[in-house]
Amino acid sequence: MIKKKKRKTVKRRTVKKRTMKKRTVSKKTKTKKPFGGYTISFKNRKETLEQVFGKASIPPSQMTKKLWKFVKAKRLGHK
Fold first, then answer.
1. Which residue in 19, 53, 64, 75 is deepest, having the highest Cβ count within 10 Å?
2. Contact in structure between 43 and 76 (CB atoms under 8 Å)
3. 3-state SS assignment for residue 64
4. Is 76:42 a contact under the CB 8 Å cutoff?
5. How would you write 18-49 as a 3-class SS string?
6. What DSSP character marks residue 56?
7. CA-closest candidate to residue 33, choices 76, 79, 75
8. CB proximity list for 71: less than 8 A, separation 6 or greater
9. Are the C-beta atoms of 53 and 43 separated by less than 8 Å?
10. How many CB atoms lie within 10 A of CB 70?
C-alpha cells in the first residue's frame, strides 16, 4: 500500500481592506470618440446604398471593399 503524505495546513493572515473613495461620475456624458482606427462621417451625404454598392447582391467582403473605395474617393475618413 502507498501511503499518502498529509499536507500541512498554513494559517493565512487576514488583511484589512482599505476603504477607497468612490469617484463621482457626472451625469453629463460627453460623446466618446470611437475606440481604435478611423472614424467615418457620413453626415450630409445623399448617396443611396445602390449608388455605393450597386444593384446586384454581393458578399460582405465585396461590400467592405466597395465601402472603403467610396470612403477614400470622397475623403470621408478622419484619423
1. 53
2. no
3. helix
4. yes
5. CCCCCCCCCCCCCCCCCCCCCEECCCCCCCCH
6. S
7. 79
8. 40, 77
9. no
10. 17
Whether residue 21 contacts residue 39, with contact meaning beta carbons closer than 8 Å, is answered with no
The C-alpha cell at 15 is 488583511
Which residues share a beta bridge with 77?
A: 40
Distance of CA 59 to the CA centre of its chain: 24
pLDDT of residue 69: 94
- Integer Cα distance of 74 and 62 in angstroms: 18
Beta-carbon neighbour count of residue 52 at 10 Å?
A: 16
Helix (H) or strand (E) holding 78: strand 77-78
